[in-house]
Amino acid sequence: MTGPAPSHTIVVDLGFGDAGKGGVVDHLCRSTDVHTVVRFNGGAQAAHNVVAPDGRHHTFAQFGSGTLVPGVRTHLSRFMLVDPLALATEAAHLRTLGVADPFARLTVDRRALLTTPYHAAANRIRETARGADRHGSCGVGVGETAAYALDHPEDAPTAGDCTGAARLLAVLTRLRDRLTADLGLSEPLGPPPVDCASAFRAFAARTTLTDDSYLPRLLHANSLVFEGAQGVLLDEWHGFHPYTTWSTTTFANAETLLAEAGTGSGIAPALRLGVLRSYTTRHGPGPLVTEDPTLASTLPEPHNGHGRWQGAFRLGHFDAVAHRYALAACGGADALALTHLDAPARFRYLSLCETYDLDGDDISTLPAAEPGDLARQAALTTALLRARPGRTRTPGPGARAWTEAVEAALDIPVLLTSHGPRSTDKHLLTRAPAVLA
Asked: What is the spatial distance between Cα 431 and Cα 375, in angstroms, rounded to a whole number?
């Protein structure tokens, strides 16, 4: 890292997720002096696959995707929805990979909301009840956690509550009782609150909980990577409603944390790094204008597939229109990481969609608006479900041709390329700025 202050990078997926954020974060942690990976949105629904140079594989959900790099720590910020039980399961797998004590390298903001078995159970009941109109939820309770906190802010359990036995048991009991009544169930939802409270207290005993002064101190002293979850096209306000997440998936939360720490007073602005595949994918229902079912047999996905709650894993050609929209929705990016560049060589007819044919009109951009109008986003979704690819072109099988084509289509430089799952398959281009050099 160069310059008078530590350098920071924010990694955000500019698609529907699954573009390779985990591998990008792992590579940054291996190639630069990163102290901590900060998670700034989502929760246990994330699935960031990392394959270490020696072949070890882990799907990161809540721990930062730099955890296989010795010494790199994780901080779960106040914007995270923390599932202590899922964290314990993830830590157990990390230990089998040689990470001796994952919790010793973890800090959690006391204000972070807790996802509980009651949220997860309610999530699955509601999603099942939607039948053919399912939204493609991950089924782990993230949406229920966010919704309950909006409805009952004074009672929403937080990581800090895990240190107080009486408060924790009270909020868990009220949570279970309210969700049981709301769902019209004849039997109480989930396990007894006393059992849940006991597990959560054990989590607090093993984890370092922090206050609002911790992250600013860390930012002033060390170089950090902010790791986003899911993708901008699933954003709670900018995504294609209702096929979205209850989470802000843009750069916004990370930049809020930087601003709170005092950007401009010893903290350099962070590099905004957007991640994209050489083809566009999504899990479950919702618009995917460039979808091509024939790609599934040509471009195998060892770490993605049909999910019981999410639904099918769908593949399409590179959708420049959707990715332009993602860039507009999140205020642009400084640079791109382009992954899966081995795919064009395996499928020589992989194409780049420049425009949509929407009711006879040639559309190259979609209008992004200020957050808050879900009716507008639902109308956009309805329109996109009618859209078809318009002008397309095939850049060719070479990685350089694809890199240049994506740069031209989105008017953003590609600074990191990836040709496979391991860190050794990723390369920083020579024009990379000092923050990545």
From this structure: 42
* Distance from C-alpha of 315 to C-alpha of 301, rounded to nearest angstrom: 10
Q: How many other C-beta atoms lie within 10 A of the C-beta of residue 219?
A: 26
Q: Measured between alpha carbons, how far is 310 from 315 in angstroms, rounded to an integer?
A: 14
pLDDT of residue 264: 60
Name the pLDDT band for 284 (thresholds 50, 70, 90).
confident
d(CA 19, CA 15): 7
Q: CA distances (Å), 73 to each of 87, 106, 366, in order? A: 15, 6, 39
> How far is Cα 415 from Cα 330, in angstroms, rounded to an integer?
19
Q: Which residues contact 360 (CB under 8 A, 6 or more apart)?
A: none
Average pLDDT over residues 285-304: 86
Phi, psi angles (nearest 5°) of residue 207 = -120, 145
Copy the structure tokens of residue 143: 């949406």
Domains, the chain:
9-107+211-436 (3.40.440.10), 113-210 (1.10.300.10)
The CA-to-CA distance between both ends of the chain, in Å, stands at 7
Share of the chain above pLDDT 90, in %: 80
Global pTM value: 0.93
CA distances from 417 to 33, 186, 300, 342, 347 (A): 20, 54, 19, 10, 18
Q: In angstroms, rounded to a whole number, what is the distance separating the alpha carbons of residues 326 and 288? A: 14
Bridging pattern class, strands 414-418 and 335-339: parallel
